[in-house]
Amino acid sequence: AAFFVRRTGPDLPIMSGMIKGAILGFDREAAELYGPALLDAKNFLGIQAVTCLGPGEERNAAVFPEARIYHGLEELFSGETDLDFALITSAPGQRARCARRALENRLHALCRPPFCFSTTEFDEICQAAQRNRRIVFSAQPWEHSHTWRTLSEIIDRQLPGQTRRAEIQLLSPGRERERGVTAGLGWQAFSVLLGLVRLPPLTMTARLGLDTAWSPDTAEDEASFQLHFSGATGIIHLSAAAHAARFSVRLAGEKGLVELRGNQLFLDIAGNTPETVTLEDDLAEGFERREWLLSELLSFRKELEVPDRPRAGLKNSRYCAKLLRNAGYSASVNSSAVPL
């Protein structure tokens, strides 16, 4: 309880009325994760249309019986003229284009990460947002978890001192195998690491898969990354071939050590008796839970309340996109260090 913290940012009142939106791409995973949260949010956020961009998506859209169904972006944009936003949950490779087209049609873009795989794509999306005076919001619902808020509070209070080494391990029993573990879990892991170290990364090395020679046509089960910061090192290991889902974090600084395994948090801080704290949740069980998604939808809504205030919705997104891009490059040159 000592480490329970509020989400950062101003505590703004909820807007009166409802904002109306469309979903761009709605596969089974998106329907399972986002569908219930969107129904919970129906008093302030309404889904008017669903654009089906893959097989089986029309069946998934049945959760919104009053929504109009489209089968292409242009069909949607010509058929709907009274929307406020688009929720981008299409296949990862389609999300950058969907976000850009939504912004070009003067819709705010609420994006499920990863929504771009390079800084070029990221900058094109942001430029489209600026031209059309709309916002881009990266949905990172895990930031509403007790685990994340606790870790953030520990860093805010500098309990272990300045972080010198941060290690993250994120293991999955296989859901990410089809597209590769880096594409499936890399954004989340990079975002967590950046949120803990709170410094810009300078270089990275990446090993994608267990074979010496890496091919971009291969969906890797294992991936390891080393990021160098000014005065700190970050290590990430991802696996889509684990026996069970696991999430762990280890932070070391000059004042102590913080270790998280599942929902068990161990604190060994100078001048204090080592202690173990049981948290309310375990990120190994998923980064996109219904209640966290609902909170993130409300955060997106708040972003729209004051048109000209500084935006928090992109968080570390540009760095996440840059790291995803350079991971493949580093792996292609024998895991050489790549400057960022």
What structural keywords apply?
single chain, 340 residues, alpha/beta, Rossmann fold, Dihydrodipicolinate Reductase, domain 2, 2 domains, 9 helices, disordered N terminus
Strands, helices and their partners?
Blueprint (H helix, E strand, L loop, with lengths): L18 E6 L3 H13 L4 E7 L5 H4 L7 E3 L2 H7 L5 E4 L3 H13 L3 E4 L7 H13 L4 E3 L7 H11 L6 E9 L9 H17 L5 E6 L13 E8 L2 E8 L6 E8 L2 E6 L2 E6 L5 E4 L11 H14 L13 H16 L5 E2 L1
Parallel strand pairs: 1-2, 1-4, 2-3, 4-5, 5-6, 7-10
Antiparallel strand pairs: 7-11, 8-9, 8-15, 9-10, 11-12, 12-13, 13-14
Helix pairs in contact: 1-8, 4-5, 6-7, 7-9
Plain-language structure description:
It is a single chain. By secondary structure, the chain is an alpha/beta fold. It has two domains: 19-141 and 293-309, NAD(P)-binding Rossmann-like Domain (Rossmann fold, 3-Layer(aba) Sandwich), CATH 3.40.50; 146-284 and 319-339, Dihydrodipicolinate Reductase, domain 2 (2-Layer Sandwich), CATH 3.30.360. Helices cover 32% and strands 25% of the residues. It is built from nine helices and 15 strands. The strands form two sheets. Strands 14-13-12-11-7-10-9-8-15 form a nine-stranded mixed sheet. A six-stranded parallel sheet has the order 3-2-1-4-5-6, with helices on both faces. Helix 7 (181-197) crosses helix 9 (317-332). The longest helix has 17 residues, at 181-197.
CATH architecture of the largest domain: 2-Layer Sandwich
Query: How much of the sequence is in beta strands?
Result: 15-25%
Gross morphology is globular
Tell me which oligomeric state these chains represent: single chain
- Across the major sheet, the strand order is 14-13-12-11-7-10-9-8-15
CATH superfamily of the largest domain: Dihydrodipicolinate Reductase, domain 2
Low-confidence stretches: 1-15
Number of strands: 15
